[in-house]
Structures are given as C-alpha cells and as structure tokens.
C-alpha cells in the first residue's frame, strides 16, 4: 500500500495547525515561526536550484546546436571520407569527442554541481538546523485530534476550515485529510481516523482535477477497513475490502484480508476520559453549569483605596469567584509595557540559544524547550510589574519567583493542575506557592481560556488583565479547589506571565489561621 509521508504536508500541518509535540502539553507559535523560516529557506534554495538547472540546460542546448551545426556542415559540404581526410577536420572531430563532449557529458552533466549544492543544503538543513520529523507530524495531528475532542469540532467542518462557525481560508486537500487519517490510525485513534478517511474519500472522489490514477481510493478503503476492524466492525471491514478486490483481485488488500482473518476483531472501546474531562471541556467551550440562587451576585467595582498607587487610577476589579477568592484586575498593563516585556524575553532567548545551540545556531528543537522564559525584576518594565503585584496582593516580593512568560501555540494547552507543590518544595524559596498572579499578555482569537475545573469557572484571556488567587488556605494547607487548566488555543497565540508568591515572607501580610477554611473577605485587601 502506498503510504505517502510528504514532508511538504508535514510542514504544512505544523505551520497551520501546530499541536503539542511528543507529549508536551503545549507548543509555541514562536517555534512555528522558525519553521516558517526553514520553509522559506527551502523555497529559496529550491528556486535557485531550478534556475541553475535551467541555465545549465540552456547551455547544453546551445552547445549541442553548435556541435550539430558543425557536424551537419561537415557531412553536407563534402563526402564524409573526403572531409575527414583533411587533417584539420580530423583534428576537430577528435577534439570535439575528446574535449568538448567530455567536458559536457562527463564533467557538467554527470557531476551536476547545482544538484550537489542543493543536496548539501538539504543535508545542512536537516542535520544542523533542526527539521521536523515523523514524530512531530504525529504531534501536530494529535493536537488537531485534541482540539476536536475538547471543542467538539466535527471532522468535516475542520477539513473545510470552519471552526465554531468561523470560516478560515484554509480547507484541506484530500491528501492532507488522508495523511491525518493514516497517522491517527497509527496512533490507535480509529474512530477519528475513520472520520478523516471518509472526508479524504469524498474529497478525492468528487475532485474534478484528480483522476485517481494511483488507486488512492482503494488505499483509503483499505485503511478504513482496518480501522473498522479495530473498532469491532469486521463485516464493514470485509465489505470495504471486497469493494477493492472485486474489480482488482491482485490488490495488496488481499494480504490485508488474510491478515484480518487471522486475527480476533478489535473492540469498540470508547476512550475513557479522566474524571475532570467533562468539566474541562464544558468550561473550555465557555459553558457554565447554572448555579443555585444565582443572578450573578458578583459585581465589578473600582478600588482606589488598596494602595496609594491606585488613588489616581483605581483598580478595576472583577471578582469572578468567592471562596476561594479569584479576582480579575483589568487594564493593569498597556500595550507598550507588554511590548517591553517581550523585548526582555527576546534578550533571554538570545542568551540561552548562544549556550545551547552549536556554533551559535538556533535550532527548532531548542526553541521548543524555550517556550517559557523567566524574567527577574531588574528591567524597568519588570520593576513596574513587581510593584503592581505587590500593591494589588499586599505580599512582600521577597517571596516571589521570577515571572514565567509562556507562549502557547495552536493546540497548546495545560491540563488541570494546582500551582502549589505540597511536596518537594523548591529549596530556593521559603514555603509553598501561596498565590498566583497571572497576567494575560495577549488576546486569543479562539480558545485558550483559563478554567477552574472544580469551581465551574472559565476566564477568557483579556490582554493586559491580571488574575490573582490564593493556592493555600490561611492555615497554609493546600486548597485543592484551585485546580485550573489552560484550554487549547484554537486560533491565535496565547501569551501569559505568571508570578508565584511563596508563603515564607508573608507572615505579616496574611496571618496564618489554624482553621483550614479560607476567610470570606478578600484576604489581600489589607
Ligand atoms: C528568500 O529570497 C527572498 C527574495 O528572493 C529574500 O528576500 C529572502 O530574504 C530569502 N529568505 C531566506 C530565508 O533566505
Ligand atoms: C457535539 O456536537 C454534536 C453536533 O455536532 C452534538 O450532537 C453533540 O451533542 C455534541 N457533544 C457534546 C459533548 O457537546
Ligand atoms: C536578572 O536577569 C538578567 C538577565 O538574565 C541578568 O543579567 C541579571 O543578573 C539578573 N539579576 C538578578 C538580580 O538576578
Ligand atoms: C465538576 O464541577 C462541579 C461543579 O461545577 C464540581 O462540583 C465537581 O467536583 C467537578 N468535578 C471534578 C471532577 O472536578
Ligand atoms: C481565624 O478564622 C476564623 C474563622 O474563619 C476567624 O473567626 C478568626 O478571627 C481567624 N483568626 C485569625 C487570627 O485571623
């Protein structure tokens, strides 16, 4: 069975749909940009290669014409033996064969310098610069499957470039759908695989341009047969194989049939989701459970009294949850400050890749691990951030970790987790992470909500806003209700900055209480 693994397709998918890679929870639009650069270099190199080849062909053509003219002239002018009887003519013929043809054929045509150049370029690209491989294509496809699962996106909509009713100009070709189906099959995701194969089948069959000379419809049917078999539908599998074998009895599907006959059929197992999954997907989709006695009791308010810093520009507080208290403070950072943060992030990346890359080369793989960067509070913009966190929370920044800046690409997510450590506390800090301050540094076109899976709460990212909550009770016991998650980004790029505060320095800021319950009033309003 033909099994195309077009590298073009691989890059295409990574660029358009980047997903989590090799089991990482998120990927980064920044590393995708590096891949786009790699592709641009490939395009340039291929174009130069084709031009060089074309020039060479033109040169051969002219050269050929010249030799042909001389040959024709020779045989046309005189009888050939008379012509060759002339010592100069004999010399010229021998010279052409020994020198000219030799140069033409044995040096330029056979050596083909443009091709050698191109080959060494491709070698360098794949070896030194970092180039996506099969596992990364699988990662991208897993990312797509995850988007479908979390957001309940149908395969046919996605293939049409339709996401939640928005139409993006990026519908997939049959070959791409087929490739996704094959990869999902290899990943054991038979149900999804079958959906993508069906889309590929319909697209190919209805394509006015493709004539299916290579029998891809049969290949699709063969994969669909195997997926059906794994899903516990041996009859359907058999029917599909018959459709291939009736017109074409010597097709490789014959072996597939024998193989399946030798096996016990698969089971139609529904994948088992973890217990948090239902809450997670519901909230990621922006749906809350109706709450008893609701009629939203939480009102936004302005707070100019928390600290003198906010006298002129009062805090715009949106309390989104009580007990545990979770507040969103809007408009904390303006675009200029956010740009300054990214200037600091860029500096860090330069420092790091000079250390990690060989010979100062930036590699795609390196960037993947540097999707998060830590910034301390020395740069002016970071000093402002430090002041904001201190004045809003009332905590002493001596207990603060550096700010972690993270970039989530399409499909990038972070499954539910608490921010506290509970065990194995890091030695550099005193106490556990008492609070989280999360700055949204970008808007996200679609997806990327922050959700609290135990609290029926979702927060869409709003650029410039700060979300703050406590991870510990007043007793300093961990508050398990603070489990939260970053939903997959569907479209766009999500950037956040997290500051975790440790409890060690905060004795006078948030007195401990022996009762574990959190205190009803907003703790950090001193
Ligand atoms: C590719 O070529 C274009 C113009 O031919 C040039 O502007 C661009 O910088 C090149 N890109 C790379 C990555 O070499
Ligand atoms: C997913 O969407 C389909 C319609 O496209 C709907 O019938 C189904 O109930 C949805 N499932 C969930 C879990 O939302
Ligand atoms: C803060 O970070 C910068 C850049 O990484 C570094 O040069 C500097 O030494 C750091 N300062 C402190 C106090 O850690
Ligand atoms: C799901 O959310 C409800 C309330 O929104 C909560 O009571 C329940 O514990 C949550 N389930 C899990 C597994 O987090
Ligand atoms: C401890 O918490 C209880 C109830 O939550 C409250 O009545 C009491 O005043 C608190 N004590 C201190 C020292 O904060």
TrEMBL record:
Annotated Gene Ontology cellular components are: endoplasmic reticulum lumen
Keyword Magnesium appears in the UniProt entry: no
Has the keyword Coiled coil been applied to this entry?
yes
* SUPFAM superfamilies listed in its UniProt record: TPR-like
Q: Where in the cell is it found?
A: Endoplasmic reticulum lumen
| GO molecular function ontology, one term from the record | iron ion binding
| Pfam families in alphabetical order | 2OG-FeII_Oxy_3, P4Ha_N
Secretion signal, residue range per the UniProt entry: 1-23
Q: What PROSITE patterns does the entry give?
A: FE2OG_OXY (PS51471)
Query: Which UniProt keywords are given for this protein, alphabetically ordered?
Result: Coiled coil, Dioxygenase, Endoplasmic reticulum, Glycoprotein, Iron, Metal-binding, Oxidoreductase, Signal, Vitamin C
Q: Which cofactors are reported in the record for this sequence? A: L-ascorbate
Question: Can you give the residue ranges of the Fe2OG dioxygenase domain?
Answer: 399-503
Q: What is its EC number?
A: 1.14.11.2
Q: Which Gene3D superfamilies match?
A: 6.10.140.1460, q2cbj1_9rhob like domain, Tetratricopeptide repeat domain
Q: Which residues form a coiled coil?
A: 35-70
Cited function: Catalyzes the post-translational formation of 4-hydroxyproline in -Xaa-Pro-Gly- sequences in collagens and other proteins.
Record family assignment: Belongs to the P4HA family.
Q: Kindly provide the name given to this protein in its UniProt entry.
A: procollagen-proline 4-dioxygenase
**What's the name of its gene?**
PH4alphaSG2
């Amino acid at each position: 069975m033909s099994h195309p693994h077009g590298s073009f397709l691989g890059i295409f998918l990574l660029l358009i749909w980047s997903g989590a890679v090799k089991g990482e929870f998120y990927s980064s639009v920044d590393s995708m940009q590096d891949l786009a650069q790699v592709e641009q270099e490939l395009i340039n190199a291929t174009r130069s290669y084709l031009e060089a080849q074309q020039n060479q062909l033109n040169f051969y053509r002219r050269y050929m014409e010249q030799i042909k003219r001389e040959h024709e002239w020779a045989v046309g002018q005189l009888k050939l033996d008379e012509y060759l009887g002339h010592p100069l003519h004999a010399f010229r013929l021998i010279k052409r064969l020994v020198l000219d043809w030799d140069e033409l054929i044995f040096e330029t045509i056979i050596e083909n310098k443009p091709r050698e150049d191109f080959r060494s370029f491709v070698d360098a690209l794949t070896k030194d610069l970092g180039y996506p491989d099969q596992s990364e294509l699988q990662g991208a496809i897993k990312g797509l499957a995850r988007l479908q699962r979390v957001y309940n996106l149908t395969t046919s909509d996605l293939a049409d470039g339709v996401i939640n009713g928005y139409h993006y100009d990026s519908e997939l070709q049959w070959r791409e759908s087929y490739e996704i189906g094959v990869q999902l099959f290899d990943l054991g995701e038979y149900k999804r695989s079958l959906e993508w194969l069906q889309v590929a089948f319909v697209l190919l069959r209805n394509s006015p341009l493709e004539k299916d000379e290579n029998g891809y419809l049969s290949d699709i049917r063969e994969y669909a047969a195997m997926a059906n078999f794994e899903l516990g539908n041996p009859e359907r599998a058999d029917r599909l194989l018959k459709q291939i074998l009736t017109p074409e009895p010597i097709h490789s599907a014959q072996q597939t049939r024998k193989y399946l006959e030798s096996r016990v059929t698969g089971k139609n197992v529904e994948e088992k989701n973890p217990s948090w999954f239902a809450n997670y997907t519901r909230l990621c989709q922006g749906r809350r459970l109706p709450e008893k006695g609701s009629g939203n009791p939480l009102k936004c308010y302005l707070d100019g009294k928390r600290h003198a810093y906010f006298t002129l520009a009062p805090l715009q507080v949106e309390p989104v949850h009580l007990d545990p208290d979770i507040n969103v403070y809007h408009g904390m950072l303006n675009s200029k400050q956010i740009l300054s943060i990214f200037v600091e992030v860029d500096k860090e990346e330069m420092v790091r890749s000079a250390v990690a890359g060989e010979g100062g080369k930036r590699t795609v793989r390196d960037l993947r691990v540097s999707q998060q960067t830590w910034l301390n509070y020395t740069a002016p913009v970071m000093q402002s951030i430090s002041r904001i966190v201190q004045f809003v929370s009332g905590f002493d920044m001596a207990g603060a970790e550096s700010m972690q800046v993270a970039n989530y690409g399409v499909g990038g997510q972070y499954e539910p987790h608490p921010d506290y450590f509970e065990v194995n506390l890091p030695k550099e800090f005193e106490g556990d992470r008492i609070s989280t301050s999360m700055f949204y540094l970008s808007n996200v076109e679609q997806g990327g909500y922050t959700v609290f899976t135990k609290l029926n709460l979702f927060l869409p990212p709003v650029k410039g806003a700060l979300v703050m909550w406590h991870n510990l009770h007043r007793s300093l016991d961990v508050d398990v209700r603070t489990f939260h998650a970053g939903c997959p980004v569907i479209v766009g790029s999500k950037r956040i900055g997290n500051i975790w505060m440790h409890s060690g320095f905060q004795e006078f800021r948030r007195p401990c209480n022996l009762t574990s319950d959190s205190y009803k009033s907003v703790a950090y309003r001193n």
